[in-house]
Amino acid sequence: MCQLLGMNCNTPTDICFSFAGFQARGGLTDVHGDGWGIAFFEGRGVRVFLDPKASAHSPVAELVRSYPIHSLNVIAHIRKATQGFVSLENTHPFQRELWGRYWVFAHNGNLLDFAPVLRGDFQPVGQTDSELAFCHLMETLNREFPAGEPPRVELFAAIRRIAADIGRHGEFNFLLSNGTCLFAHCASRLTYIVRKAPFDEAHLKDQDITVDFRQLTSPADRVAIVATTPLTDNEEWTTIPPGTLLLLEDGEPVDAGPAHTRPFIREAV
């Protein structure tokens, strides 16, 4: 199972602490060794780092871990390949332009018998079901809203409906952002935490690292972290119910609704 990590906040924040624990899951504390990537939104631009090597042994990951890039929205992914070669073009997160903004997407799961017909506006470069699903999502949104980005409530409803349609083909956990907000869709497993005043210490599960956020934040700061499983062992994380699309803005959930589909249930083996 791939690993997802997302951040949404109300003031530009670095993700170094969370990424330190997340990085370890790519070949050190877990078996996800088929590449990793991370995308930072900076204004209307996106800074993306990708590496087909395991994150626990990647010099690029070490750079990201020690480089405090401040961003309002971040999406990261550690890959365990199910479809497509282990290669740079198949490494998440993927990026496309729509309505004059970059969109970034990362997927955890496996889609079977998924072969949408694409018109050509958005085409996958690699061979993954994930990138194909992203292109289908972008093309559908572009077709339904040709005049430009719709109001947030309409956009949320459309993404929720498209996610439900794609989710009929398998496990479809994903993170999606255009730099103004973060969408988190849970098909089987996804959690989040909102850090806000009064801040306290946090200790990583995958690394023996503790941070005292009281020394690094202001009382007005608010940061939401989304991860496949909790990154810390001394904080209370919220489990996103399977079948839910969660919208986060300014460091907190502002909308959530069922994806109108049954939660994904993994078959016993």
Question: How does this structure look, described?
Answer:
The protein is α+β, with helices and mostly antiparallel strands. It has one domain (3-258): Aminohydrolase, N-terminal nucleophile (Ntn) domain (Glutamine Phosphoribosylpyrophosphate, subunit 1, domain 1, 4-Layer Sandwich). 18% of the residues lie in helices and 33% in strands. The protein contains four helices and 15 strands. It has helices at 16-24, 59-66, 129-144, 152-167; strands at residues 3-13, 36-42, 45-51, 71-78, 94-98, 101-108, 173-177, 182-186, 191-196, 201-203, 210-212, 222-227, 238-239, 244-249, 252-258. Helix 3 (129-144) packs across helix 4.
Low-confidence stretches: none
What is the CATH class? Alpha Beta
CATH architecture descriptor name: 4-Layer Sandwich
Whole-number tally of structural domains: 1
Q: Mean of residue pLDDT?
A: 91
Please summarize the sheet with the most strands: 7 strands, antiparallel
Please report the distance between the alpha carbons of the first and last residues.
Answer: 15 Å
CATH topology label: Glutamine Phosphoribosylpyrophosphate, subunit 1, domain 1
What's this model, at a glance?
The protein has four helices and 15 strands.
Primary descriptors:
6-stranded antiparallel sheet; 4 helices; globular; 7-stranded antiparallel sheet; Glutamine Phosphoribosylpyrophosphate, subunit 1, domain 1; 269 residues; alpha+beta
